[in-house]
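Build the 3D complex.
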Amino acid sequence: MSGGALRSGPLKPVGELLKYSRKYSLWMFQWGLACCAIEMGAALAGPRYDVMRLGVIPFPASPRQADLIVISGTVTDKMAPAIRRLYEQMPDPKYVISMGSCANCGGPYWDSYSVTKGVDQIIPVDVYIPGCPPRPEAFVQGIVMLQERIQREDPAERWQGKHWEPIVVGGGEVPA
Amino acid sequence: MSENTEVEVGATMSPENLELLGRVSAALGAEAIIESAQAVGDLVVRVANASWREAAKACRGALGFNYLSFIGGIDWMPAPVVGGEAGDTSSPVQPAEQTYGAAGSAGRFQVFARVASTSVPRSGLTLKVDLDEESPAVDSWVSIYPGADWHERETWEMLGIGFNGHPSLRHLYLPAEFEGNPLRKDFPLLAREVKPWPGLVNVEPMPGEDVEEEAE
Amino acid sequence: MPKFEVDPAVHRGLADARLNVEIDNGDMILNLGPQHPATHGTLRLVVRLDGERVVASDVVIGYMHRGYEKLTEYRTYPQITTLINRIDWLSSFANEVPFVHAAEQLMGIEAPPRAEYIRTALTELSRIATFLLFLGEMGLQVGAITPAFYGFRDREYVLNAIESATGGRFHPNFNRIGGLKDDLPWGWIAETRESMRKVLKSCDEFEDLVVSNPIFQKRTRGIGIIPAELGASYGVSGSNLRASGVDWDLRRDGKPYLVYNDLDWKVWTHSDGDSFARYWVRLQETRESARMVLQLLDVMPSGPVMTKVPKIIKVPEGEVWVNTENPLGEMGYYVISKGATGPFRVKIRTASLSNVSIAPWLLRGVYLPDIITVLASLYFILGDIDK
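Done.
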């Protein structure tokens, strides 16, 4: 089925439905690295936040079954090759959430000799969640904004590798 | 809490530390001890490089210090100013001359360790040992305190200090291809050299804080 | 020796060896991590297995190494408290205390009594938050998911108390050299008292749900036994060592710090030294901490929370070793100052590094599924191992 048929014409509602289903069945590969992983854990396992109600399922057996990867914590130069490798194992279309200042830019370790200054140096990032660590609410907000992006985007264009303006939680609307 | 913040000399030691020092020199032999001092209540004993292993044996045996707290290293060289004269001024400036802490040192590198007893409250002893500046090395403690393994690997990696008799000195924290010894004072933090401290960009007075205080 | 005269015992061995070659009974190398849910982050474990038994194992760490000791040399004293919050990220407040004490001792100042009481209360609250996560997580490692939800739920009560006092859920950065940033907010004491009651109740729940569960007992009793003397020589500390019967707690046996001597509490030990004992001791310590907080709330003195300190903090020349009983074990800072605004060298002694260094010894001979429970029962935080 070509992307064009789902984009306009009589099949357009089917395309919308496909996007709708995709956004509410995100299989999430959790890459808990540091402090942020605990807040991510609180968002996933804590009854107060409960991300699973948004259709995010955090238990893929391997990255090959995941749609979404959350890098939460400090990325070190020793860890970076492993992140790159597991990211490459994920099937397209795939999304990346960078959670916390360390994953965004190095954070408090901006001058360290062993820390990668941002995970976007090794993999493309869709959503940046600022904070040290971000509250679980911010993480939930990041998921919601990513779902908005999935509903709006054209899957065909993503397949063709179109670069989207990254989303920043707390930085206004989801960019078009 | 100690009133005296200076590093005290032997004559002003607390009675407990004098008693402990007596036991240390009895167990180790007075000639092995180069210097001793009290640093805010704790006894620091500097032993000769050749007696480092014997010191561990004495600690574990006669002195009853069954618990190894840590082993680490010190580089006493003054750090070069970051970024040269006009560079980043956000990091603290240390004195330019090379001085040594409690119990002194013979040169740039030292290894220090802390042992304690789990059966005697408030017990513990800090040991220091001088190293050769060109090829710093000292005997390993692994056969006496098995926990010394990782601490010695860390010290080797961070400061380039060798440990004779260590079963496998290899990288602990850093990737195997990492070059340099980060904790040496002449190891520069490249991020600091190329980019000023980001916090300097937007220094604003806090609300309610007047400008006079800022100037002070 | 004649060519064919072979000792029968050796001969049998040779025959076995040939058989082994035929069925290719080589050891299997299994790699866990660096990304594995059961390793609590980024610990990597390379295990050599014979069938299901571990023959040897090697722990590869450093995936979370952030270079704290180097970074402290580039920071001023007040900036460092921000940094060290994140070493053991579950009990951040407890990390600040020894460092701030070290600076205070070198400067010859003391925080006012109210500040010390609040520090003690917040240290114990972060201990409870840390242990509640462990009590839940450990259940998860033996296949029970419910305790994990309970742990996260009850931890929120404690985090609320920490947050309302400090403004941060778990990186408070609330200590200042010479006291605290702020006084407690209005109503905090009553609310915290209520939370502590909930914590005590949830400890009873964990006792019912996990400790008395026969499956949990089967999976943890007699597994991963740390002998007391060996543990001490490895530098294992805290609850892990107390679970091996060593009655040693720095809150009582170290140099006096905070206000533990004014409280009525006891040190819990267990004689078994296995995974179960470590769980049991932490459960009791959670209770004990909640009781300590309740006592502190009753006797909290009034007064200022900050003593007079210079605007720019310069710590006089000297060196000091301050160690405290953190939730994970002995944490200490060896601070060497040369009179500048930042330290010359800070040696950070973290509990988890030594606690995990015993793992290769401990895992020898255990079954594959028990690797996970043994590691979980040691309870480490990767930031605390890697620094």
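Confidence is low (pLDDT under 50) at residues 1-10 of chain B.
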